[in-house]
Amino acid sequence: DEEELQALADSVRDYGVLVPLIVRENPVSAGTYEIIAGERRFRASKIAGLDKVPAIVAEFSDKQMMELSIIENIQREELNIIEEAKAYDNLCTNLGLTQEQVGQRVGKSRSYIANIMRLLNLPRVIQDYVINGVLTMGQVKPLVNLNDSDAIKIANDAIELGYTSRQIETLANLAHGRQINKNKVKEDKDYNPYYEYVTSMLHKRFKAKVKI
Q: Which of 54, 120, 139, 185 is deepest in the core (most CB within 10 A)?
């Protein structure tokens, strides 16, 4: 993100690079280095016009370098949940780590890692909805075990009609043929998130109990 990079460059210009980059000697080009961690700081430093940056030279294998780079990306707050899931999958697939080992490295439980990675079973179009902020993780999570056509239909309906996570879960259970409480289905069917919003506004305006 160019705006965030510029903001970081402004900070670097005022205060310098407070956290050193981690680099290793380039095995194929003598006298040069590969960045393991700190590419954003490096880019921001160039924008800020710095000639030098602090760096720690470490010895890492290709596998260790990949692992550290992925983990650093995971720890960046701006990652969306799908990018996070792909990073965990990368650690498992390319580096042979178990979900428990991944959890240990990033400070998460094994069950958290497993649940996040299950989102990669969703059709690409639904993953894109999450990446673009159209649907949340809570909304798409019930769709993981459905076939692609059912999952996409419910996701599109959810966007068009403003379904909540609870409503989507009910529809997913119906599509999956699960037995569910008919009263709960009616309750979910009658629920409208816009009513909840207007109810709240009227309550604040009139200081009285409101039901739509």
A: 139
